[in-house]
Amino acid sequence: MVRDLFNMDFCLTWPTSHFVHRFSFYRSYYLTTEDLINVVGFEWDENGKKIHASELAWQQYMQFNPLAAWFKGRRLSIRNDLLNLFKDWGSA
Known about the structure:
Elements: H1 2-9, H2 16-37, E1 43-45, E2 50-52, H3 55-64, H4 79-86
Antiparallel strand pairs: 1-2
Protein name: Myb/SANT-like domain-containing protein
InterPro entries: Myb/SANT-like_dom
Pfam family, one: Myb_DNA-bind_3
């Protein structure tokens, strides 16, 4: 089971319900950050662990995806961990 492998890899003991909720949250976080970084005008700042773009680019993107506002100016210190976790999963 995926949950068991995840718990073993990350030394966790999450029950199925907790795992499903957190997995879904982190998958959405990963997909949104990757979408943002692939939009023209957005770039990943590895040193600052933030996504940078002009104010106009942010405003235009947030009209398309209002949830992206959460990522604006925020330090995303777990992005690389999520990249390692989800890179082979695609949009599954």
